[in-house]
Amino acid sequence: MKLIRDGYNEVITSRRLTKALPEDHSDWAITKLHEELQELAVTDWSDPEEYADVIEVLYKLMSLRGTTPEEGEQIRLKKLKEFGAFNDGLLLIYKDET
Question: The whole model's pTM is what?
Answer without folding.
Answer: 0.89
